[in-house]
Amino acid sequence: MATRGFFGRRPATDVAKRLPPGQHLTDDFPVLSYGPTPDVPLADWRFTLHDGPRPLASWSWDEFNALPQTTWRGDIHCVTTWSKFDTEWQGVTVDDLLRAAGIAAPTPWVLARSFDDYDTNVPMADLANGQAMVATRFGGAPLAPEHGGPARLLVPHLYFWKSAKWVKGLRFTARDEAGFWELRGYHMRGDPWREQRYTNDP
Amino acid sequence: MDWSEVVIDEVRPRTPRVASVFLRLQLAAQHAGQHLDLRLTAPDGYQAQRSYSIASAPGAARVELMVERLDDGEVSPWFHEAAQAGDALEARGPIGGHFVWQPADGGPLLLVGGGSGVVPLLAMLRLRHQAGRGLPTLLLYSARRHEELICADELAAMAGADPSLRLVFITTREPSRRPGDLDRRLDDVLLREALAGWGHAPAATFVCGATPFVEAIASGLRAAGIDASTIRTERYGGA
After folding, report:
1. Parent domain of B28
2. How many domains does chain B contain in total?
3. I need a labelling partner for A111 at 20 to 30 A (CA). Which of A11, A138, B79, B168 fits?
4. Domain with B35 in it: what CATH number?
5. Same structural domain for residues B87 and B108?
6. Same domain for B83 and B114?
7. Rounded to whole angstroms, how far apart are CA atoms B57 and A179?
8. B73 vs chain A: nearest CA distance in angstroms?
9. How far apart are CA A158 and CA A131, in angstroms?
10. Same domain for B17 and B113?
11. What is the pLDDT of residues A103-123, one digit of tens each?
12. Domain ranges for chain A
């Protein structure tokens, strides 16, 4: 059913093939957060891996920045329908975090936890093999607080709410536990190519 | 979540850049503060979808959305230039489980809106006017000029009929017109003064507007001693 008088702006083919269904390209970098931007002094910053309640490994800001650094370039997709192309991030991959901790993932499920008490669930299968990092730099500069700095999770192949801002750790869980938005109507996995926006989407 | 066809009942300009779009639609379960996804389809099948905040209170006979015109936008100009009563499009929702308020949540309630960020707050105030009068509430509503204040008369009438609702308009580029209104940017000092003048400690705070506005307000509220966990934000940005 066509909408009378609407013609739209069909993106060029090279753009269209990079846009998941229902998304449109933006040059901006919009911000979405559920509350105030927390103030996270680097002196107090720590990143911790937990198995349930039990801490497995922990790094201060300086220790974290001494871990192997990886750069990732590519496209990101927000559930509110904007996509941004050719972003550049630098940080520590989840693979390298586990390697530095000297452990294998103890469970297949992860809850990423943030300094503002936000959390979001991501299966380990979406974090391993270079698919995800804890990013501390964006576009060559330290990550700005409103975009999640000092550090945010980056899981670019899922909708961007999975890329938790102000991340303070990963908690391995015994089952797939819903996080903040997942408890409020959003999809448990959030694959943009399958348009998994809301709870009951396929 | 499935799409369903909805029909426009009326398009009504509210300010030079914002129009209300009334839909012939009643929502079964809506919370004030939620949004609706709309999808438009071109003759060749190409589709574009966007989210718009709901301005009407739950239970309204027709849903009212507000659409701000973005000059380089793909979708918003259609609502301002082409849309008319009887046009059909697709909708799904309502959506959002965090930036929502209902009278049972209580107060005191602090609402801070910048520009079109007032729209979800308007839904909360309309609901409060029906079912929550007497609840101490402060709306701080900032725009550049008077003509850009959405539903200013309706808001003033609500406050006139209910002393527990305090309303402060802030116009950053024009002198204020009502006693108690402000005509400077809402910085930390002004925010603190406004809260002191109100005399209540908010139990719940909702802040909505463009990102720099929300960042500044949320940080000012924290500096004024308001517990960050009681502050909910929604930001507008991008196309």
Report:
1. 4-95
2. 2
3. A138
4. 2.40.30.10
5. no
6. no
7. 28
8. 9
9. 10
10. no
11. 999 999 999 999 999 999 999
12. 44-194
CB nearest A201 (choices: B1, B43, B215): B1
Domain identity same for B24 and B113: no
Q: Within 13 Å of residue B42, how many CA atoms lie on the same side as its CB?
A: 12
User: Which of residues B95, B126, B157 is at a domain's end?
Assistant: B95
**What pLDDT score was predicted for residue B237?**
61
Pairing state of beta strands B137-143 and B165-171? parallel
User: Cα dist. A176→A159, A182, A183, A189 in Å?
Assistant: 17, 11, 12, 10
The beta-carbon neighbor of A34 closest among B88, B98, B215 is B98
ipTM of this predicted structure:
0.85
Q: Does domain A44-194 have CATH number 3.30.43.10?
A: no
Residues of A with CB under 8 A from a CB of B: 1-10, 22, 24, 26, 28-38, 80-82, 116-117, 146, 180-181, 183-185, 197-201
Exposed (0-12), middle (13-18) or buried (19+): which is B72, by Cβ within 10 Å? exposed
B53, B17: one domain: yes
Q: Do A184 and B43 touch (CB under 8 A)?
A: no
The pLDDT of residue A31 is above 80: no
The reply to whether B83 and B153 lie within a common domain is no
The model scores a pTM over 0.90: yes
Mean pLDDT of A148-155: 97
Same domain, B223 and B118: yes
pLDDT tens for each residue of chain B, 239 residues long: 889 999 999 999 999 999 999 999 999 899 999 999 999 999 999 999 999 999 999 999 999 999 999 988 899 999 999 999 999 999 999 998 899 999 999 999 999 999 999 999 999 999 999 998 999 999 999 999 999 999 999 999 999 999 999 999 999 999 999 999 999 999 999 999 999 999 999 999 999 999 899 999 999 999 999 999 999 999 876 32
Asked if residue B37 and residue B115 are part of one domain, the reply reads no
Specify which residues A60 forms β-bridges with.
A46
* B142 contact partners, CB below 8 Å, separation of at least 6: B112, B113, B114, B115, B169, B170, B171, B172, B185, B186, B209, B213
From CA B46, how far away is CA B121, in angstroms rounded? 33
